[in-house]
Structure formats: structure tokens, C-alpha cells
Design brief:
Elements (H helix, E strand, L loop, with lengths): L10 H12 L7 H14 L4 H9 L1 H11 L10 H14 L4 H18 L7 H16 L6 H18 L6 H11 L4 H8 L3 H16 L9 H14 L5 E5 L2 E5 L5 H17 L12 H20 L10 H4 L17 H13 L3 H9 L3 H6 L10 H13 L3 H8 L10 H5 L2 E2 L2 E2 L7
Antiparallel strand pairs: 1-2, 3-4
């Protein structure tokens, strides 16, 4: 930094020199160091000149980096010093492309590495705030992939740790990608690891459940998700033949299968939303895909006892059951419900899909799904809605339903075990 002898040095430069002379941090100088950092933080709001001085001072940034990210000292740095130091970095880059480039060059990799480390807290949001401002400023090229990967990792930590930390800027970063990113976001998504893609999709499901609070998901991203599901849905169901006996298994530990499941969850949520329903009106290939998959699952569930076989026995679903609850973590859990939910949404006021419903003889499968299945919560309710939407405005399907013959109540082991008859519950007293 060139400061002529006849010119008074800017206050930010003076403060930096004072900070460097005080190092290393100890119990005697902690308050003085804190005062210098606070002063520098506040100067950033006065004039961009101070931001540039701070961002361009190599020795100051080297010491700040050591303090924040790789401090090997036996002396524990007070949390208030670390917090003010992070706030200083954040203030130094506000609306200043030059300081953004310099700060990210010196600290960017460490910010990405540290932002998702538990426990999450106030420092997490400040690190994300720095990342967001640099991302939106556009002064640093080729950081989008890095930012999306880091944000997904933060979301993974939130879910794994069940953290209640407020990470406001995490949602701002995701908004940048899912609302405005479009084609670029699709490219960055494709370069995530399989587990990161699954976590990104889980974030989208959470976003949809909250009615898209920061804006509509970009239509190109939704279309890409549909395309990816159509490609990867066959990985969910893996059919194997043993002689003349056909069976089916799910690649339980297969990431492609789990990604296909995650893609389906997004589609099930989005296709039923008023914001996105119209985007699926002409997705006939999607309707045919989910219908075919549902029929396959129903068929293989009957062939042998497997993970697609409905759980309808009381001994299987009771809280006192000896049967492991591991099935709730399998890809098969809630899979039929999601498929029927998609079908119900895609049939709504859609004459073309109603025609495909007739052509593919989907109705009998939907009727079978109205029976209870502990593997698929709310399957009955979604099946009833799907049948209703199939019938709505479609005389052909209405006639098919009208011409069916009532042969009595469907067999249900739980109803039999509970002695349910005509809506009454008869409990046998224990006389033992």
C-alpha cells in the first residue's frame, strides 16, 4: 500500500496496522483487537475506498484467514472476535466488485469448506451471506457450481443434524438457482454428486410444500426434472427372472433408484400445485410412465412376498409388531402413493390422459389401490381422488364404473382381524 509521507493515511490502513501489531490474540489484547475489527467493519459502510484497502491488504487477509479458518494456536479465540471478523469480511464486499474478487480469491475456498460444518449457527449465515453477495455481484467467474454444491451441503447438514439454525442466505442462494437459474441450474445440477442431487431435490420438495415462498421454480428446471424421471424411473424397479418365476427387487442401496424416487416426489408435489399444474398439462409421456410403473408394482407385488406386496395384516402394522420398521426407509415406502398422487394430478381436467387411462386399462389398478397398505400411507385417499378425476367429464370412464358389478367388500385382513362389520367395531373381551 503506497501512502505518501505528506498525505495522512486513511483510517482503515491505520487500523489494519494497529491490528497486525497486536497479534497474536491473548487474554490481554483481546478487547483491543476486537475494537480494531469493529472499527474496520464500520468503515466499510463509509466509503468503498476502505473496502478496497481491506480487501487488497495481503498481510491483513493472511492473518484474518489464519484467525478464522486455520488457527492452530493453543489459545482459544473468543467467539465475539470470530463473529466480528466474519462481519468485517461480509461488509467489505457489499456492492463492490473489486473487493468481492479479492476477498473471494483469498478466502473463497475456506468459506465453501467451512460453511456446512456443524454445529450451524450465526456464523453459518454470515459465510453464506458472503457467498451470496459474491455470487450476485457477478465479479467472480465460475463460482456458481461451487456455490450450489456448498449450499446443498449446508442443507444436508440441516437435515442430518435436525438443526434449527436460521440460515436466511441459504434460501437466497437456492432462490438464485431455482427461480432465476433456468438452463444454467440444470447444468450445475447435472455436475453434482448423486447424493447432492438427491438433497437438492429434497430441498425442492420442501420449497414446494411451503408454496414456493421466494418465487416460482423455473419452468425449464421442472421440465428437466420430468425428463430425468422418465429416463431414471426404470432404475426404481429391477425385474429379475428365476426360471419361470418372475420377481422384482428395488436397488435399495442404488443411488440412481433413490434419485428416481426423489425426482418423483418433486413431480408429485409440483403437479398438484396451482402454480405449476398447467406445466404438466401436455406431459403425456410422464402420465404413461407413472401409469406403467404403478401397474408393474401392482403386478410384482402379487407374484411373491416382496417389498411391493401390500402390508394389510394387523400383525404387520401394529405398534407392538415384531416386524422391523426398516421398510419405512426403503425406496418402496410410499412409492405407490406418490405414483397414484401423480396420476390423480395428471388426470385432472385432462381429456388426453383420461383417454390413455382407458387405453392402458389403468382403472382396475387404481381400484385395487383403494385397499389399505401400511407401506403406502394415504394410498386409498389418493386412489379415490384419481378415480374421481378420471371420471370427471369423461362419459366413457363413468360408463365403465357404472357397468361394474358390486361383489361385496374387498378382502382386508385387518378388517377381518378387528371383526369390523357394517362399520361397527366389535372387541372381544380378554377372558384369560
Amino acid at each position: 500500500m503506497d501512502c505518501s509521507s505528506h498525505t495522512e493515511a486513511p483510517e482503515s490502513f491505520t487500523r489494519i496496522e494497529a491490528f497486525l501489531q497486536l497479534l497474536p490474540v491473548n487474554d490481554n489484547n483481546a478487547l483491543q483487537i476486537l475494537d480494531q475489527l469493529k472499527a474496520l467493519r464500520n468503515l466499510c459502510a463509509v466509503d468503498p475506498m476502505h473496502q478496497n484497502i481491506i480487501a487488497e491488504h495481503e498481510e491483513f487477509n493472511a492473518q484474518l484467514h489464519k484467525l478464522l479458518f486455520n488457527n492452530n494456536s493453543t489459545v482459544e479465540i473468543p467467539q465475539n472476535i470470530l463473529l466480528i471478523a466474519l462481519q468485517l469480511l461480509a461488509n467489505a464486499i457489499v456492492q463492490n466488485p473489486n473487493s468481492q474478487r479479492n476477498i473471494w480469491r483469498q478466502h473463497g475456498d475456506a468459506i465453501v469448506e467451512c460453511c456446512h460444518k456443524p454445529p450451524l449457527g450465526r456464523h453459518t449465515d454470515i459465510l453464506l451471506m458472503i457467498m451470496y453477495n459474491v455470487l450476485k455481484g457477478g465479479a467472480v467467474s465460475n463460482m456458481e457450481q461451487q456455490s450450489l454444491s456448498a449450499s446443498v451441503c449446508v442443507w444436508q447438514t440441516i437435515v442430518q443434524e435436525r438443526s434449527e439454525a436460521s440460515c436466511e442466505f441459504l434460501h437466497f442462494i437456492f432462490e438464485h438457482f431455482i427461480v432465476y437459474g433456468g438452463h444454467n441450474t440444470v447444468r450445475y445440477y447435472a455436475h453434482l454428486t448423486p447424493m447432492q442431487r438427491i438433497s437438492f431435490l429434497e430441498y425442492l420438495v420442501n420449497y414446494l410444500r411451503q408454496d414456493s415462498p421466494n418465487g416460482r421454480i423455473h419452468q425449464f428446471l421442472l421440465k428437466y426434472i420430468t425428463k430425468e424421471f422418465n429416463i431414471k424411473s426404470d432404475r426404481i424397479l429391477v425385474c429379475k427372472r428365476d426360471g419361470t418365476q418372475a420377481s422384482a427387487t428395488v436397488e435399495a442401496d442404488s443411488l440412481p433408484a433413490r434419485e428416481g424416487y426423489a425426482l418423483l416426489r418433486v413431480i408429485a408435489s409440483a403437479s398438484g400445485s396451482e402454480l405449476y399444474g398447467d406445466s404438466y398439462a401436455k406431459e403425456q409421456s410422464l402420465f404413461l410412465n407413472v401409469s406403467s410403473l404403478l401397474r408393474c408394482l401392482a403386478q410384482v407385488g402379487k407374484q411373491s412376498q416382496n417389498i411391493f406386496t401390500p402390508m394389510t395384516k394387523l400383525e404387520e402394522v401394529a405398534l407392538t409388531s415384531d416386524i422391523s420398521r426398516d421398510f419405512e426407509s426403503e425406496v418402496s415406502f410410499e412409492l405407490k402413493t406418490l405414483l397414484v398422487r401423480c396420476i390423480a394430478n395428471l388426470l385432472y381436467k385432462n381429456a388426453v390422459n383420461q383417454g390413455y387411462c382407458i387405453d392402458t386399462q389403468l382403472l382396475p389398478t387404481l381400484l385395487e389401490c383403494t385397499n389399505m397398505d401400511a407401506r403406502n400411507p394415504l394410498l386409498k385417499e389418493w386412489s379415490v381422488l384419481a378415480i374421481r378425476n378420471a371420471c370427471f367429464g369423461c362419459p366413457e370412464i363413468q360408463a365403465m364404473i357404472a357397468n361394474m358389478t358390486n361383489q361385496g367388500a374387498a378382502q382386508n385382513d385387518i378388517i377381518d382381524e378387528l371383526n369390523l362389520d357394517m362399520g361397527a367395531l366389535r372387541i372381544k373381551p380378554n377372558r384369560g
